[in-house]
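Duplicate of earlier report; Beta-lactamase hydrolase-like protein input re-posted below.
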Amino acid sequence: MEIKKITPGLSVAAQITAADMAAIKEAGFRSVICNRPDGEGADQPTFDELAKAAKKVGLEAAYLPIESGKVGDEDAEGFGAALSALPGPTLAFCRTGTRSATLWSLSQAKTVELSDILAATKAAGYDMAGVVRRIANGGKTPTDTGDASFEVVIVGAGAGGIAAAASLKARKPGLEIAIIDPADIHYYQPGWTMVGGGIFEPSDTSRTMGSLIPSGVHWIKSAVAAFEPDNNAVILDGCRVVKYKRLIVCPGIKLDWHKIDGLVDTLGQNGVTSNYRYDLARYTWELVQGMKEGRAIFTQPPMPIKCAGAPQKAMYLSGDAWFRRGVLKDIDIQFNNAGGVLFGAKDYVPALMEYVKKYDATLNFFHNLVAVDGPAKKAWFDVAKPDTPVERVEMEFDMMHVCPPQTAPDFIRVSPLADAAGWVDVDQATLRHKTYDNIWSLGDVMNAPNAKTAAAARIQAPIVAENIVADMRGGSPVAQYNGYGSCPLTVERGKIVLAEFGYGGTLLPSFPKALIDGTKPSRAAWFLKEKMLPPIYWKAMLKGREWMAKPEKVTVK
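Output:
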């Protein structure tokens, strides 16, 4: 007998016997639900036999028989009522446990988030893809069959989504495209580092979403609940269904603030800030301006994260401001990185280390932030050095800049599109899904081993567009992605180390070395970051103008 836990109050199992009841009681259960009709299998005990055995050991038993593959709406309601009435925790069972897991999923649909239901059942080994529309519809069988349908559907209207739509429209102006995204505002997130350094205003980094959706592209202002790739369908909140011929998945990344105990309660106050949030980047600059002495901690969580250089960019710009004001000697800068290196592409590390020395910053590797007490100005880190037991250390601070842990969005992690780690599973060259050949992905959500930056999405969007157009013509992929990503490391006000690299850390500079040597700090790179990249983003990348982003063609060997 294998018991699979769904929630603290419910576990499910395949067929049990009367002899199992004592072990079920011993495991802490107080009731059982039988969801398998009597006589379904020749070797199956009757419910009466099981009920007598349950009573003998002090377990309550309920009989809710469901024919295989025919879970009705009223069955789910009955299961929910039984769960409420029976003493918990409860063990439900059928032939394999699938009916019991399905009944629980549908019974909880009105009160539990779809992604949480799918995550719980997936963790227990049960796939609810067959009833995902019913879960999204509050546990009821949908009656609306008036589905919208488009040639291309794009999930996510961030940098990657809008750029991909614009690139497709540039190639096939008549293409019927829909972008699905619930947000009203679109943000230029690379600018938030500059806001935190006192260079940009927050308003410089935002536009209304409606002003950026390419002309002729339909904007469906809704959140995605789930995917049905076998049916070429995207399920929206409220169980509306959007059908597609080809799908692009690029909803970005989830910032998991709640994963750090106490962080959410203190963000934006008590000296705790983050340039990873639009409304907090300004607070970073306020803290830097007001600080004259004390300890400033800058944190970086385990990879992957968007723009892996951003946590140290905040440190460098803050250190530079304190250096210019003459207070740096009284400020203790600590950079606490959950990883073991300062920067993944080693060619840029020597230049960065010069600034680490200039600001007298202490590098603490393998230090992962796990808890914060804002009012007490204390933080706790798990130190996990190789071949050493994990040790929890406490550090006091006067200011702390936090980079939050990051994961794929919940509706992606529990979907059929995800790999074992929760990211959209693509071929790293063509960006086409490995299982579903009419699905592509780009940006932070996919699993190619590249840096998650806006510059990466700028290169990926035309590659996806080229390959989708080739697919429409019946051909194979014609463009390939080399892993390009760019991280302009703002080491001081007026100078940047322009890191540009691809798969495996290969250097991929965009400019001649005489103009910008990316391995050294330069004013030309700062000019690029401050003056050129924002208009390139707004007026070129999001408009389908692929300046310095022409796709690399597939080479035939």
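The CA atoms of residues 5 and 132 lie 20 Å apart.

Merging into the original ticket.
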